[in-house]
């Protein structure tokens, strides 16, 4: 059912190239993005995969600006999954350098824009230079009150949920909580994303129609928008198209 709807949405997106969102209408409070297609973009141009990742970084900059300008409060970018460690070492090393490069070149502007940086994921396996760049950015922007830019790095939803369950069981065994207190809200409070709301809109590029172990708990009632556009080719106009369709949907949360 999900795949059928997703394909319908993707086809509809192609037919709405001129769609414009209502700037006075409902803007998604939280947009999550699965940035897919960097490798295929590079392959189509006979370039190494890392060239696609570098071009994709430029798109990140553009979408952050666009999201900030239209009033999005939270933007979560799926940058590196727990499964991505299986990729060739050269590619992984490059992907670990990209956050450092992005934050080094863009941090001053992000601070000026009042953007707050957050990392979402496990810090344990990250190289020291990557972790340092992220922690520096988090610390420097901790007091900012504008757009919150979340980088999902070394992130896997199943691992996130497993860690939350372990934490809750540990508290239960220690007598800190009672079994009857364990509910959906408690689980949410033990996730990486405990201090900000679930996504209103998920965007995935490249034509793939799956979640790829991304925010499986948080996406329960999220509107999804899929496009064949590869991430390096994704523009603010595509973002606006996604928001325009989002504004045309009725979110019922299981009700009629």
UniProtKB/TrEMBL annotation:
Cofactor requirement: Mg(2+)
Entry binding sites for Mg(2+): 36, 223
Positions of the catalytic residues: 36, 84
GO annotation, biological process: polyprenol biosynthetic process
Lineage: Bacteria, Bacillati, Bacillota, Bacilli, Bacillales
Pfam family for this entry, one: Prenyltransf
Keywords: Magnesium, Metal-binding, Transferase
Name under which the protein is recorded: Isoprenyl transferase
């Amino acid at each position: 059912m999900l795949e059928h709807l997703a394909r319908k949405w993707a086809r509809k997106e192609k037919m709405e190239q001129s769609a414009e969102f209502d700037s006075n209408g409902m803007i998604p409070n939280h947009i999550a993005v699965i940035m897919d297609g960097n490798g295929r973009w590079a392959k189509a141009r006979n370039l190494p995969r890392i060239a696609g990742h570098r071009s994709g970084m430029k798109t990140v900059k553009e979408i952050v600006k666009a999201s900030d300008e239209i009033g999005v409060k939270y933007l979560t970018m799926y940058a590196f999954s727990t499964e991505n460690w299986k990729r060739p070492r050269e590619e992984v090393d490059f992907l670990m350098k990209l956050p450092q490069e992005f934050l080094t070149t863009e941090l001053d502007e992000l601070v000026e824009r009042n953007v707050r940086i957050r990392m979402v994921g496990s810090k344990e396996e990250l190289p020291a230079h990557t972790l340092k760049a992220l922690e520096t950015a988090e610390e420097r922007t901790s007091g900012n009150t504008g757009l919150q830019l979340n980088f999902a790095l070394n992130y896997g939803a199943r691992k996130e949920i497993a860690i939350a369950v372990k934490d809750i069981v540990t508290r239960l065994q220690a007598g800190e909580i009672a079994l009857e207190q364990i509910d959906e809200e408690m689980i949410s409070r033990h996730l990486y994303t405990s201090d900000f709301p679930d996504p209103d809109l998920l965007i995935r590029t490249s034509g793939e129609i799956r979640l790829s172990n991304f925010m499986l708990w948080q996406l329960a009632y999220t509107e999804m928008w899929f496009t064949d556009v590869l991430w390096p080719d994704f523009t603010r106009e595509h973002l606006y198209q996604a928001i325009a369709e989002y504004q045309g949907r009725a979110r019922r949360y299981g009700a009629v």
